Amino acid sequence: MQLLDPLSAAIVLGGTLAATLLRCGWRDARVALHALAQLPSRPFDSARVRAELAAQVQEIGEDGILRAEPHSFGDGEFDDLSEALIRHRSIKALHDEHARHRARRQGAADTATRVLGEAAELAPVLGLAGTLVALGGFAAAADADYARSIGTAVITTLYGLVLANFVFAPLATALTRRARAEERERQELIDWLAAAVERSIPLRTDETADKVAA
């Protein structure tokens, strides 16, 4: 049996991708592709962001919250957090903004994981379909051709199992692991930032803010 069969691999992989796209749709597929494209990149650099945040907190402590300017950290969430802190002068605003970004990231991670899970589920099915096609195509062929069809049938099943258990399922797990690690680091930064801001400046409570607004 020939282990490398490009045609069988193309049939199983192409069929799996097509079936996954039909089941999940273009929008979810794009989210999954974006998440996979980000997987080889450098993980979230909490040390760099913490250093930038420390400079922001020091500036607020020295110049006051009213004269402080929002910083750009190169990270969408912490850029918005800096702006929310300056605008609202409230720890609650930090947590609310963080919760909004966390929900968006979690939704994207869940979508990508679901798409890859669907692909892992469909790959063995397409491998079996390739097996049936290979056997049916050579049902009336000569003995030598029929022997080759048996090898093709087995290799398509193997490709389906390999794609499911060594490609799509591990990628889904890797995305989940990375998302959890990033959320943990971001939450630690938010807790540190809230504590540092409380020590540096007298922020308004929600009740005080309501009275000032009234």
From TrEMBL:
The chain crosses the membrane at residues 6-26, 122-142, 154-176. The keyword Cell membrane applies. GO terms for cellular component: plasma membrane. Keywords: Cell membrane, Membrane, Protein transport, Transmembrane, Transmembrane helix, Transport. Residues 98-187 form the MotA/TolQ/ExbB proton channel domain. It is a multi-pass membrane protein. The keyword Manganese does not apply. InterPro entries: MotA-like (IPR047055), MotA_ExbB_proton_chnl (IPR002898). It is found in: Cell membrane; Membrane. GO terms for biological process: bacterial-type flagellum-dependent swarming motility; chemotaxis; protein transport. Pfam families: MotA_ExbB. Belongs to the exbB/tolQ family. This is Chemotaxis protein MotA. It comes from Pelagerythrobacter rhizovicinus. The lineage of its organism: Bacteria, Pseudomonadati, Pseudomonadota, Alphaproteobacteria, Sphingomonadales.
